[in-house]
């Protein structure tokens, strides 16, 4: 007999009928002989509704009170799920973050889990209960309620799975697994049977909204196998996420993602003095602005100046505009412009480590499509290119074809590609 | 500088505009120089909405999970109120039942408060916060969430006022105070400036839905002055509820209430043997059926039998029907009938203790109106008569006139009334 931790997202528990459906899925796992701990998100648009209520009252709610408000969403869905399981004749008990022993940092709206005291959960499992735990929340010192920020319920599930030494962590949602590319764009995109933590992480970071990177990182650290699967197709095993060492690597590129949530900022003609880049990125860091891609181009037009370009999240534009003048003052730039007309197209694959030429193939493919590359960034298992937004789908389709991310063909990419 | 505990009911916090209004009321009290602890109920119909969700899932929800579900209602309203107070520039912090230190019995959906550890509230008050506390909820052993049942938020407020040794407990709602009779029926009903705990208790028990008896009992035990006042008319002081010894008693009857929430049950021809009544009421008690008025009529038609009639809450009819056959078996009654066509008309007044003749005047008044009395019950400061439902308003108007509960006249009832 094993222990499975499951997580059901907001769409899976959006109304009472769907909650009954989830109850059946939970019981199915229990009947297969496993102990079950189920993490739930808030029902459908509950969180949005609560955020709207707060926004009617204040434009700058206290993070502590927002956590107090938002944490009710999961408390509602978990108690209803426990009732639905009871109704089908099985024992179930719901636990808040506090009751489940989830301790977080002393921080609101984006707390990290520090520790889980699993005593109460263990006791409930021993008493043969299916244990339902509120996702997205915990408590810090003095029983203050905290929430984990975006993707919090995934993180709760993985952290619980690790703390309970579960056999697997299943993330149920309305998608059937991880695809090679967005199936809404690339109609022939394939569902992956398995993917490595590293690839999943890169895909998550470059805009594939399947899993939050934090949850994948935690799973990777603890070697916790995860499954991404559909709560509406229970017989479909979805995609298994495991260690790269446990996978048979047969393709250099596993997946592709397009991210339109970023904007490019270009700061022109910064005097080329040591420390100017540091000044700039310190200013950004002080505003809590996360920067993604960075390019510095040297020695322009024989003037002793550089251009620096970088990308930030579209949602951070307001923050940036607040310090724009200050940046100008300090760096005496000739111009600062914000380019919203971009998309970041990324390919990800653990197999590209020892396959030279993947980057060159990517650039070549885009060139053949007459798509100009504005910025490039790479990691060991990822290559991202910034291009004009209108080319998003065209680039995705062309790259999927070249890297065989479409169709049923799972053969190797041919060998003689030029080295990057 | 004093300490005021306030409670705002569901209608007062029904939407974001009303929550802003409550925030102004809270700040008004704070600005008058007092420390303020504010207890809130769930917004408007939130609780009904949650109950409906549960009912879509199961017809017999676990009480524990219902408490988990329902306790979110107050958590939502309290965090929004804290935000609204912050928005107006004042410090506020919201606390769940657990955080506020409210310990209850180990029982769900109708727990009683056992103890309040006021440490956290005291600390927040010391730090100059307005403290918002979730009404209706607490925790029992192992941090299990409990709720207090009907009228729970009133009870939370009074219990907090007592534990904090507050100067007063103000219950704000959509009524402007306690009236001599229901103003919707008796247009000339007067708002009372003050009323004793004992009178308020009797009025609450006989169907005046202003305050839950439990909260009044707690206030009485602790001699905590309460005010019932309107959250929409802040300059109106409403009705003060105080000890009878602090009042100037100038009228024998303070108020009148009509209760249509009961039904009369008549059990005919029970053999007149010792112990039969005990058997009957034991059966009822085992089903958790609360009985109000009881009449036993002896030696009917020279048969050696009695009739026993009593009233129960309309909502308990199902429970009663389940044991009806059993009652018949044990008592061999000739007939058991349920009479839903009744209203209980009650007059209440601490002044009737040393004023003879009040009951007689009541019966006389009803007789003059040709209203037949089906049952009578009395306490030291209350007389209730059961009459046909259609006479409810007629009886109320006639009794208000006789006992001067209408108009602006606050003079004594004239002396020469016959003794009961």
Topology of helices and strands:
The structure is a homodimer of 420-residue chains.
Chain A: E1 3-8, H1 16-31, E2 35-40, H2 46-57, H3 63-87, E3 92-95, E4 102-104, E5 113-116, H4 119-126, E6 130-134, E7 137-139, E8 145-147, H5 152-163, E9 168-173, E10 194-196, H6 197-205, H7 213-221, E11 226-230, E12 239-242, E13 255-259, E14 262-271, H8 276-286, E15 291-297, E16 305-313, H9 317-331, E17 335-339, E18 342-348, H10 358-368, E19 375-379, E20 382-388, H11 392-402
Parallel strand pairs in A: 1-2, 1-9, 2-6, 3-6, 9-11, 10-12
Antiparallel strand pairs in A: 4-5, 7-8, 11-12, 13-18, 14-16, 14-17, 15-16, 18-20, 19-20
List the strand order in the largest sheet of chain A: 3-6-2-1-9-11-12-10
Distance between the termini of chain A: 49 Å
Count of DSSP-assigned helices of chain A: 11
> What Rg of chain A do the Cα atoms give?
23 Å
Helix content of chain A: 25-40%
Largest sheet entry of chain A: 8 strands, mixed
Mean pLDDT of chain A: 89
Question: What proportion strand of chain A?
Answer: 25-35%
Number of E strands of chain A: 20
């Amino acid at each position: 007999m094993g222990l499975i931790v499951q997580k059901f997202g907001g769409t899976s528990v959006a109304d009472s009928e769907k909650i009954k459906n989830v109850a059946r899925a939970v019981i199915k796992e229990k009947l297969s002989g496993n102990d079950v701990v189920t993490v739930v998100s808030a029902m459908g648009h509950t969180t949005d509704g609560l955020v709207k209520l707060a926004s009617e009252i204040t434009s700058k709610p206290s993070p502590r009170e927002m956590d107090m408000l938002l944490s009710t969403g999961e408390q509602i869905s978990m108690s209803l799920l426990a009732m639905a399981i009871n109704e089908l004749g099985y024992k179930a008990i719901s636990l808040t973050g506090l009751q489940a022993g989830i301790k977080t940092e002393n921080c609101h709206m984006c707390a990290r889990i520090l520790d889980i005291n699993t005593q109460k959960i263990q006791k409930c499992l021993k008493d043969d209960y299916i244990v339902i735990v509120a996702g997205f929340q915990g408590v810090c010192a003095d029983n203050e309620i905290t929430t984990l920020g975006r993707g919090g319920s995934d993180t709760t599930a993985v952290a619980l799975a690790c703390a309970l030494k579960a056999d697997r962590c299943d993330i149920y949602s309305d998608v059937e697994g991880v695809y090679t590319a967005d199936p809404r764009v690339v109609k022939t995109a394939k569902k992956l049977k398995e993917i490595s933590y590293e690839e999943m992480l890169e895909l998550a970071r470059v805009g594939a909204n399947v899993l939050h990177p934090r949850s994948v990182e935690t799973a990777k650290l603890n070697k916790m196998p995860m499954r991404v699967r559909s709560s509406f197709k229970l017989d479909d095993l979805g995609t298994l996420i495991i260690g790269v060492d446990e996978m048979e690597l047969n393709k250099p590129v596993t997946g592709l993602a397009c991210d339109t949530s970023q904007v490019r900022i270009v700061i022109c003609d910064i005097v080329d003095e040591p420390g100017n880049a540091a000044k700039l990125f310190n200013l950004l860091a002080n505003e809590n602005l996360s920067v993604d891609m960075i390019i510095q181009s040297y020695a322009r037009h024989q003037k002793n100046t550089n251009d620096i370009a970088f990308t930030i999240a579209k949602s951070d534009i307001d923050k940036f505009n607040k310090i724009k003048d200050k940046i100008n003052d300090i760096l005496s730039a000739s111009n600062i412009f914000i380019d919203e007309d971009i998309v970041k197209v990324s390919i990800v694959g653990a197999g590209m480590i020892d396959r030279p030429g993947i980057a060159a193939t990517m650039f070549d493919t885009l060139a053949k499509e007459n798509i100009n590359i504005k910025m490039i960034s790479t990691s060991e298992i990822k290559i991202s290119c910034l291009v004009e937004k209108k080319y998003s789908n065209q680039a995705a389709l062309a790259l999927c074809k070249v890297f065989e991310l479409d169709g049923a063909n799972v053969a190797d990419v041919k060998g003689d590609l030029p080295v990057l």
